[in-house]
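Form P-L/3: holo structure prediction, ligand S-adenosylmethionine.
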Amino acid sequence: MMHPTRLFGVFLITTMVATAKTLISEQHRVEEDDWTIVMPRRKNQKRKLPKLKHAKQQREQTHWVPTDLETTPERELKLMQKMQISIEKVEKSQFFSVFLDQICTSEASDHFSKITGSENKLKMVIYGIGSIESFESPRLQLSLAILMKRKLDWIGEIEVFDPIISLTESKVLEELGCHVLSVNEQGMRKVVNPILFFMPHCEAELYDNLLKTNWKHDNLNKIILFGNSFEKYEQYQSMFSELTLDESMKHLLTIRPFTKEFKISTVSDDYFRAFQNSCWHFFNVDSDTDLQLLCFAR
Ligand SMILES: C[S@@+](CC[C@H](N)C(=O)[O-])C[C@H]1O[C@@H](n2cnc3c(N)ncnc32)[C@H](O)[C@@H]1O
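OUTPUT (holo model):
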């Protein structure tokens, strides 16, 4: 495993620590051994995305409306066409067939059926999809979610939220059969019935908010989470433990021993950026595990 001293300069180390929470986004990559660190790239950004406050400063659940309210039928049509091309590309890809195989035939299927077993349909909640109008990765990620609903009969309604969604994106999402939420939940959805959370390349705080809100064995055991590898977060945390003690990953790191992870295979370069480091996560916590104590002891 790479040691921080092997990195060339304090700047890069600082950047890595800062971006360890995001791990991935649409953007400029610095590769070192088998780690890939990505930093936001503002060049080529087609739409000026609204600036967000840091998740830590923004824990309140608030009513939300899109910041970008400009829309025209042409703009919506253009985006819908881009989405249809993307859905078709994913559907015909080897990436998608390997992805479905993993769900249906591998060891993972036991974990899925344990959670889906008693339910007719599982709701899918998508947080942090990003801008489907400006970037390909969010389009590929959304295509995958939509195709899952089309191909897997146990997936029900899809709800989507990202504070940067524009009115055009919101209308296209609704047309594609997704319900765009009007509340920024900050990832703090309480799980009563099993839910599949599709959170591609979100910040660690958002995963942590979800876990913290459901910090009981029976809630956690009802969650299927698609998102950044928790194992990688743990590795980063241990690599940089002298530099950062990150409160915002406390629940994510505490739940690690009770988490089963299945890594998504990106198969080809076309899908690398959108799905690199993405995993299915399942939690298996016994009723006698004192989660509060474990979290407190960290
Ligand atoms: C690193 S980006 C990932 C975007 C996209 N999934 C990708 O891989 O390129 C994280 C996304 O999380 C979104 N986000 C931030 N706070 C959020 C919240 N409270 N609820 C849902 N999404 C949020 C950001 O707006 C951003 O689009």
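COMMENT: Residues 100 and 106 are 10 Å apart (CA to CA).
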